[in-house]
Design brief:
12 helices, 7-stranded mixed beta sheet, about 450 residues, alpha+beta, about 40% helix, 4-stranded antiparallel beta sheet
């Protein structure tokens, strides 16, 4: 198989990437998390020794540390630097991909898996694999060497308009009116400002002309200037064929006025379930919607316990913060909470008159969920600090926010369940729930 180069399968490090499949190009957080999943070794003490904190630890420090690397199932281990472990990760990934490609080519040429053919790369390339993998790891990590290691695992926007494109399915941005105020009010305002063209640009897509206020019982398409930002909000039923409107999505965003720059965004899932008698009922109902809703059911079960879980979901419409972000230049200024207030105040009323229960999972907004289990406890505790601060801040804010329809709130450990769906650890948890309440 001379035309497939093993070394060519090593990532170049030229472009940043996020690994999403077995052979996807790893990014710096993938390599750092893999290295940190190993036990740190202290050469001075000649023994394993974990760091007590990571407050002033940079990526370069982590990658030059030494770690205990187990040699398979032999019970033996060796000591390697972080860079060497990262290189081994890349080399193993490249070798696995090469073998898969070799098997595919063999099958395409009429070969069979069990015909005894051994797939072996070029000896010269195999000899160079670890050296070239080390160079590749160094290139990937070089831009982040002076970066605090905790910052590698923060979530943040990667594009000003990306979130809008992904979330407004079926409602293009140019179909959202500039304001939800009735057209007649706009005409009066335009006349007062001597700008009659303004009224012609707006329209009243939901038949609200002549009313004096925003109608919370109708679907949303709302835009209004609030301070230096434009608030835009949409709402849709996820399953409009279901008469009792069990699941809806509300999406609100602050743009900088006059630009398309997203300052903050929040996506709320409005979840209403038929009467449930157990957490197994909730798992069964929400699993029919999506993996995210299944994860919500499992995390809520863990947070509330079976008794309070049934009480909350039977008497409230649960408003789950599915995504909630503030772009870095505006963080720490209260913009996220301000947007959340505006969105909660404008939610369509529940047809059955149920009050809302606000459900918050603080961790996913601070940490890449898939890395949590790999990080050492001291770093995980440090990365969790923003989530703990957010929990305290929101609790204090909700106590004084005076939101008439939000009657209770609860926090859930979504990071333990999100993205796993019904596989792996979630499958075992589902089995335990079903068996205990059968």
């Amino acid at each position: 198989m001379k035309h497939v180069s093993l070394l060519a399968l090593l990532p170049s490090g030229a472009t940043p990437a996020v690994a999403t499949g077995p052979y996807a190009t790893p990014a710096a957080p993938d390599l750092a998390a893999y290295v940190l999943s190993h036990e740190r070794y202290d050469a001075v003490e000649n023994a394993p020794s974990a760091r007590k904190d990571y407050k002033n630890v940079h990526v370069a420090d982590v990658m030059t540390d030494q770690y205990v690397f187990p040699l398979g199932d032999t019970g033996k281990s060796i000591v390697l630097s972080g860079y060497q472990i990262a290189a081994g990760f890349l080399a193993e990934r490249a070798a696995d991909e090469w073998l898969e490609l070799a098997r595919q080519q063999h099958a395409a040429n009429g070969g069979a898996d069990n015909d005894g053919t051994r797939h072996v790369p070029e000896p010269a390339e195999a000899d160079q694999l670890m050296d070239r993998a080390l160079e590749s790891a160094e290139r990937i990590l070089a831009p982040f060497e002076a970066t605090p290691v905790a910052s590698l695992f923060e979530t943040h926007y990667r594009g000003a308009r990306e979130f809008l494109r992904l979330s407004w399915e079926g409602l293009p941005e140019d179909l959202v009116p500039k304001s939800r105020r009735p057209a007649v009010v706009l005409k009066v305002a335009a006349a007062a400002d001597r700008e009659p063209a303004l009224a012609a640009k707006d329209y009243d897509p939901y038949g609200l002309e002549g009313t004096s206020d925003y109608d919370v019982d109708k679907p949303l398409a709302y835009r209004e200037k609030i301070g230096p930002f434009l608030l835009t909000m949409t709402y849709r039923h996820e399953y409009p064929q279901v008469d009792d409107e069990r699941l809806g999505t509300a999406f609100a965003v602050f743009h900088e006025a006059g630009t398309d720059i997203v300052a903050a965004a929040v996506e709320l899932k409005l979840v209403k379930v038929p009467p449930i008698q157990s957490s197994a009922d909730l798992v069964y109902v929400l699993d029919t919607y999506s993996g995210e809703m299944l994860s919500l059911a499992l995390a809520a079960t863990e947070a509330l316990g079976p008794e309070r879980l049934c009480s909350v979901f039977n008497t409230h419409r649960v408003v789950y913060i599915s995504t909630w972000e503030v772009r870095k230049p505006w963080r720490g200024e209260g913009l996220g909470v301000a947007l959340l207030r505006e969105a909660l105040q404008r939610l369509p009323a529940d047809p059955d008159g149920r009050p809302d229960a606000l459900c918050v999972a603080p961790e996913p907004y601070q940490t890449e969920v898939r890395y949590l289990s790999q990080l050492p406890s001291a770093l995980r505790a440090e990365v969790d600090v923003p989530a703990q601060r957010l929990t305290r801040h929101l609790t204090e804010w909700l106590d004084r926010a005076n939101l008439p329809n939000v009657k209770t709130h609860f926090f859930i450990p979504m990071a333990k369940h999100e993205g796993i769906g019904s596989a792996g650890e979630n499958a075992r948890l589902i089995d335990r729930i079903m068996e205990s309440e059968a």
